[in-house]
Each structure stands twice: as C-alpha cells, then as structure tokens.
Amino acid sequence: MKIWIDITNAPHVRFFKDIIHHLQEEGEDLIITSRKFGDIHKLMDMYGIDFISLGKHGVTLDEKLKESTNRVNELVDVVSSEKIDVALSKHSIELPRISFGLGIPSLYVLDNEHAVAANKLTLPLCDKIIAPKIIDVWKLLSYGADPNKMIRYDGTSEILHFKSFEYDDDILKKLELENSLPKNILMRPEPSLASYLDTDCNESVLSPIVDVLKEYSNILILPRFKKQAAIFEGIENVTILKPPVDTSSIIKKCDLVVGAGGTMNRESAILQTPVISCYPGVPLSVDQYYIDKGLMFRSNSTEEIINKALSFLVNPPKHTKIKHDDLFEIIINNIYDLAKKA
C-alpha cells in the first residue's frame, strides 16, 4: 500500500513520527512531503524521517494564498504520477484539495476549530475526519464537514507525541545550560505568524512575565523564529533554546511551563508539569479539555500569571490520571479502512 503523508507544521512531526515508523515496519510504501516553515526540516532529520520539501509558509494573507497555490502545483507534480492508496494529514491545506482532485481517499486530523480559513478549505473535501470529542461538532459542521465522515475520540492529538517517549533526566546538563537559580521555567511565545492569530511578531505577551519571574527562576525560551528570539536576547537568567531539542524531556524536567501557544501547553499537561496558558487568542477546546481536568491554568492577566507561577514553584499540584482513547489505533485502523474502500 502506498500512503502519502503531508507534514506542514513543526508539532506535526512529533505527532506523525510513530505512525510513520509503524507503517514502515509494516512494509508500507510512504511518500512524506513537507514545506519550509519553522523547525520542520530539523525535526524530521532528528527523528530520521525521509521527506520531500515543497513550498514554504506565507506571512501576509496574499503571501499565504500565493504560497499555497504554488505548493499545490508542486505537490501535484510529485503525487499525480504515483498510485497512492490513502493520503493522511493534520491541518494541511493542500493535501485534502489535491486528494479530492485526484480521487485519493484522505484522512484528516483536526484539533483547531478556530482556524476558519483552513477548515473551510479542507473539511468539505475529506473522506474521514478525526477530531476530539471536546470540539463542538456543530462548529465543524458549519465549515462544511460531513457528520457521517467524522470519527471523534476522547483526548487530544498530543497524546500521540509520547507513544515512544523516553525521558532523559540529564537533558539540562546535556544542553550545558548555566542555571544560576534552583528552579527552571520553560516558556513558549505565541504563534505570531499563524493566520488565526492577530499579533505583532516583534513583541510577545511573555515579556512582562519574564521581567518578573527571571528573579525567581531560570527562564528557558523556545522561540518559533529568529525575530521572536531577538525579543528575549541579553536578559539575565534567560536562555534561548536552539532547536531541535528534546522538548518533551525539557518539559518534564522543568518546574513550570508558561506558554502563549497551544501544543506545548497540552504536552505539559499530559506530562503532569504545572502549566499556565497565556495564549492571547480565544482558547481552543482542546485547551479547555485540560483546564477542566485541573491540569492547566489559564489567564491573560500578567499579575495573575506571575502570582500563580510563584505559587506553582512553591507548591506544585498533585498528579492526576488521564484516561483517553487510543488515537494511534484509531488512525492506523482508519488508514487501512479507507484503503479497502478505495
């Protein structure tokens, strides 16, 4: 069986890595495509994934449209000559459109109900859509999703990031970090270049939080791009991490995570590291999933975030067991199910 997987964002590399390795071990023929954006290429190399890079990410709306259109053309040239049985992606805009046009069955993984443009362009074209139960199904239907094509599960996509995770307790030593204080806080800035968030990539909501917490803890910043890294350069007790790094082990090793994004916050909740979300947009349902379970605290008040952070550093919350469906099995089963029906 020949399977096409398109990976268009850095967190999706961790999401797909175990699926890719499993399918390869099963003897399936994989075509893995990607694009130039963030740390995708470095992470693919880090996990030993062979891929074809086509296209890049656009910043402005007109650039996004042009780059996506160009990427469709480039991808068609690659996949149209292949006899692909199933196509698989997570929030790829191009794969569902190409699969629909070429008559390839497609399986689409979704976890962001606020990505209006992406969802409207893709959901009506997918043969199967896998989405968390926490997301309002009526929201997805409003984008044109077919309710008969939806598979819903209990949990979030980040549970797949840890299927083969091996914790490295010496991760901070291996990174040779000069930590002058006994506590460590990992921070992740907001996704300023995303189409669903209107923010200035020259600023960060984390800046005033860093200014205070740097006096109490070593701050590790994992920026998304160079301009974002520059915001935090030269600040005392602040270290800017250079990817690719073992973020999962860093999360587990740190005393606290403060994130203005989404994926790393949810990873922290799963790993039971205290996490504060200060995402500047409307919260995603998948974030609410962990907030409801008491595994994530959310606020946009700088004062409240700082006070909660100091509280977590002194009195970390107790661990809570999480029960969720086997997303890995759901995806694998639906890949083969689609192939049989093709």
UniProtKB/TrEMBL annotation:
Q: Which Gene3D superfamilies match?
A: Glycogen Phosphorylase B
Q: Extract the InterPro entries matched here.
A: DUF354
Entry-linked SUPFAM superfamilies: UDP-Glycosyltransferase/glycogen phosphorylase
TM helices/strands, residue ranges: none
According to UniProt, the name of this protein is DUF354 domain-containing protein
Organism classification: Archaea, Methanobacteriati, Methanobacteriota, Methanomada group, Methanobacteria
